[in-house]
Amino acid sequence: MAKCEICQKGAHFGNNVSHSHRRSNAVWKSNVKSVRVSVNGTNKKMYVCTSCLRSGYVERA
Predict the structure, then answer these.
(1) Which of 15, 18, 33, 47 has the most C-beta neighbours closer than 10 Å?
(2) 4-30: per-residue pLDDT in tens?
(3) In which family does this protein belong, per the annotation (predicted)?
(4) Residue 4: inside a domain
C-alpha cells in the first residue's frame, strides 16, 4: 500500500469486533492517489492523500 509523500499517511491496522466480542484482523486503507505535481518548476508523479490535495499542500501540474 502506498503512503502519502507529504504527511506519511498509510494503512491503519486494528480489529473488527463482532457483537459477541470476537476479534478479527482489519485494515483501513487511506485515500491515496497518484497525481502529477509541480515540484521546483518540474513535474513529478507522487502519491498524495486526498486530504493533502484539498488542503493545498501540493500544487497540481
Answers:
(1) 47
(2) 999 999 999 999 999 999 999 999 999
(3) Belongs to the bacterial ribosomal protein bL28 family.
(4) no
CB-CB contact of 48 with 32 (8 Å) = yes
- Domain membership of residue 30 (yes or no) is yes
Mean pLDDT of the chain, nearest integer: 95
DSSP per-residue string spanning 11-23: -EEEEEE-TT--E
Q: Are 47 and 33 in contact (CB under 8 A)?
A: yes
Q: Which residues pair with 13 in a beta bridge?
A: 27
The DSSP output letter for 40 is T
Do residues 32 and 47 touch, judged by C-beta distance below 8 A?
A: yes
Q: Which domain holds residue 42?
A: 12-55
Whether 53 and 33 have beta carbons less than 8 Å apart is answered as yes
Specify if 33 maps to a domain. yes
Residue 1 predicted with pLDDT over 80: no
